[in-house]
Design a protein that fits this description.
The complex is a heterodimer. Chain A is of the alpha/beta class. Chain A folds into two domains: 16-52 and 89-196, Rossmann fold; 56-86 and 201-393, Rossmann fold (3-Layer(aba) Sandwich), CATH 3.40.50. Chain A has helices at 23-37, 40-54, 64-70, 89-102, 116-128, 138-143, 145-153, 168-182, 199-220, 236-242, 314-322, 332-346, 352-364, 386-393, 395-408; strands at 9-10, 13-14, 60-62, 74-78, 107-112, 131-137, 157-161, 186-189, 227-231, 252-260, 277-282, 285-290, 325-331, 373-377. In chain A, the strands form four sheets. Chain A has a six-stranded mixed beta sheet, sandwiched between helices. In chain A, strands 7-6-5-8 form a four-stranded parallel beta sheet, with helices on both faces. By secondary structure, chain B is α/β, with parallel strands linked by helices. Chain B has helices at 17-29, 49-60, 65-78, 89-95, 97-106, 125-132, 146-153, 177-187, 202-208, 219-227, 232-244; strands at 5-11, 34-38, 83-86, 111-113, 135-136, 139-140, 159-163, 192-196, 214-217. In chain B, strand 4 (111-113), helix 6 (125-132) and strand 5 (135-136) form a beta-alpha-beta unit. Chain B is globular, with a radius of gyration of 17 Å. The two termini of chain B are 17 Å apart. Chain B contains eleven helices and nine strands. Chain B has a nine-stranded parallel beta sheet. Classes of the chains: A alpha/beta, B alpha/beta. The interface between A and B is large, with 35 and 43 residues.
Chain lengths: 409, 246
């Protein structure tokens, strides 16, 4: 017996590997989500908040200067980072907050790494008049102070997670633990297309608006897409972007993982294309994880906090295995170079996560014909990374500025 | 009135392998009827902070699953107390349910408690355990639906590990009438119920008598261990004896 819904597994991956304490919450969530999804009223509410608050549809930019500079395929950028709070994360957070409200929950909880999902959840909770607590690793809190400040401004309580590695994966554990005792009045908005079912499917559906818009926008300009490129941490921007095309044989779907600072263990977050990952069960789902032979999760690294996670969403793992999605990686340095390139040529600052997709596009475009088009998902904008990118690219001036700020403060 | 037996929990490799053997022996000496040995996992989702910190320390000390099995082999030769392994699905899945069960049986383990490999997402653990002659013990919770409880009960497990309240290990547990009713409902399926999550007093043990086969006690012992310095062996033996009413 399972009360599971349709998309419990994606090929061999997914599932609902949780204790019985969480089982009723997930069973009920699956049922209520399907009910909401089949209700036109729910979609009307979703559409309204998307257009009046998130700022959808986000533009599709023809990156003409970048295309000319690289030579080869036409490069388009889906400007998802222009969505409210700065990234695609808001699509899922708003959708799940609406669902939570419909389910009669008074509170939402969320985990966050860099803070983008926490910020999106905090904003959605404030907008819908719900309480919100965000779990954030102690280390992440220390290095992402601006997002902590913004979340608190919105009335969210940010709780430092002091267990484990004190980063994103531990925040997920803490949120799952909290949810096990709080679910009667609390919904857990998981931040990516991962975790126990039905979460990966819920995140995919709320994020599929990105792919749907892209397809419509390309049709409008009469363009045919040869390849879609998205970065892959947990993978919600990628699965949403790819979603309408998964069942078709074209275009090429390319997922870009964080190559970090090298191929050694702990130096990257490559789950799909290297040899460091294995199939495992963690955080409630089965997928490919950076894991040792005993099944212990291993540390990961990326210059972008959003890609610095040891697992990958189960549907992406399955589509990677079937070959429908090609996985490549881009390193910290390549991401910074891509950030600079698109800023210089297009006046657009990618988030460091999305800059990995930009880097892959820069490699790919020159190998393609000028009649072909690739679309890069700029899943987030780069303002949030100021403290990382300025330090990496303009160290002396930036440090000098921070010093003066402290001295004047 | 049937007395409630004591399932004493410890973390393998905490604070190190040698000391965890000594902890196990102290608990057995104090009258523990079962030892529940937890293999630490890097990303636990059902442990309270006390147990989680112990697991983290054991991992930082280099805990390996093979060393955990060796520890159990030693315990099995040194005490007749039946041994259970508690851990998370990742460790079982990493070597395969069949191999894990065979290895557990070979070192003298009586049963397995893996909360995130529930029946129907068990990666064949229940069948593999049965084939190896192990008591694979489902972990259930008060909020379980009747339908789900019947599904699990129909597997005829020898033991059922039951949480007494919503949530995680280590929190205070009140044994109210609803908890007793729930325990009796579970017991009706014929399994030996092990009641866990927050038991720490003789009074709770007495309240559980006739309603649960055994009580699992974990965070309580860890706290005593941490607070008793070099005298931990006597302190743990004494704590187990108090829970047993001796």
């Amino acid at each position: 017996m399972t009360d599971s819904m349709q998309y419990d597994y994606f090929g061999a991956y997914g599932g609902r590997y949780v204790g019985e304490t969480l089982r009723p919450a997930l069973d009920r969530l699956a049922a209520e989500f399907e009910e909401a999804w089949s209700d036109p009223l729910f979609h009307r509410e979703l559409l309204k908040i998307r257009t009046t608050w998130i700022g959808r549809p986000t533009p599709l930019l023809f990156a003409e200067n970048a295309t000319r500079a690289l030579g080869g395929a036409r490069i388009y950028v889906k400007m998802e980072g222009l969505a409210h709070t700065g990234a695609h994360k808001i699509n899922n957070a708003v959708g799940q907050a609406l669902l939570a409200k419909r389910m009669g929950k008074r509170k939402v909880i969320a985990e966050t790494g860099a803070g983008q999902h926490g910020l999106a959840s905090a904003a959605a909770a404030a907008k819908f008049g719900m309480g919100c607590r965000v779990y954030m690793g102690e280390i992440d809190m220390a290095r992402q102070r601006p997002n902590v400040f913004a979340m608190e401004m919105m009335g969210t309580e940010v709780t430092a997670v002091k267990s484990g590695a004190r980063t994103l994966k531990d925040a997920i554990n803490a949120a799952l633990r909290e949810w096990a005792s709080a679910f009667p009045d609390t919904h857990y908005i998981i931040g990516s297309a991962l975790g126990p079912s039905p979460f990966p499917e819920i995140a995919r559906r709320f994020q599929s608006v990105v792919g749907d818009e892209t397809r419509a926008q390309m049709r409008e300009i009469g363009g045919e897409i040869s390849a879609l490129i998205a970065c892959v941490g947990g993978g919600s921007n990628a699965i949403g972007f790819f979603s309408p095309f998964i069942g078709e044989s074209r275009p090429r779907l390319i997922g870009v993982e964080a190559g970090g600072r090298g191929t050694g263990p702990g130096d990257n977050a490559v789950r799909m294309s290297g040899h460091a990952a294995r199939v495992g069960v963690a955080h409630g789902y089965k997928s490919r994880f950076l894991m040792d032979n005993d099944g212990q999760l291993l540390p990961s690294h990326s210059i972008s906090a959003g890609l610095d996670y040891p697992g990958v969403g189960p549907q992406l793992a399955s589509l990677g295995e079937s070959g429908r999605i090609e996985f490549v990686s881009a390193g910290d340095g390549e991401a910074l170079a891509a950030l600079r390139f698109f800023a210089r040529h297009e006046g657009v600052m990618f988030a460091l996560e999305s800059a990995h997709a930009g880097a892959a596009a820069m490699r790919l475009a020159p190998t393609m014909k000028s009649s072909e088009s690739i679309v890069v998902n700029m899943s987030g904008r780069g303002d949030k990374d100021l403290f990382i990118t300025a330090k990496a690219l303009d160290r002396d001036n930036w440090i000098g500025f921070l010093r003066r700020e402290v001295d004047n403060g | 009135m049937a007395d409630c037996l004591l399932m004493a929990h410890l973390v393998a490799g905490y604070p190190d392998l040698e000391t965890s053997v000594a902890i196990a022996m102290a608990l057995a000496e104090g009258g523990a009827d079962y030892l529940e040995v937890q293999f630490p996992f890097s990303d636990p989702t059902a442990d309270g902070p006390t147990i989680e910190h112990a697991c983290r320390a054991a991992l930082e000390n280099g805990f390996k699953v093979d060393a955990g099995f060796e520890l159990l082999r030693r315990l099995a030769t040194e005490t007749p107390t039946p041994l259970f392994i508690m851990t998370y699905g990742s460790l079982v899945f990493a070597r395969g349910a069949e191999a894990f069960a065979r290895q557990a049986k070979a070192v003298g383990v009586r049963g397995l408690i893996i909360p995130d490999l529930p029946p129907d997402y068990d990666e064949n653990l229940f069948a593999a355990g049965a084939a190896a002659g192990l008591a694979v013990t489902p972990v259930i919770a008060p909020e379980i639906t009747d339908r789900r409880l019947e599904y699990i009960g129909a597997l005829r497990p020898e033991f059922m590990y039951t949480a007494l309240r919503l949530g995680i290990t280590g929190d205070q547990t009140e044994l109210d009438a609803a908890a007793i009713r729930y325990l009796d409902k579970v017991a009706a399926f014929g399994a030996k119920t092990v009641a866990g999550f927050g038991v720490r007093t003789r009074k709770q043990m007495e309240a559980l008598a006739s309603h649960a086969h055994a009580a699992a006690v974990g965070s309580h012992f860890l706290e005593i261990f941490k607070n008793s310095g070099n005298g931990y062996r006597a302190a743990l033996t004494g704590a187990a004896q108090r829970l047993k009413g001796r």
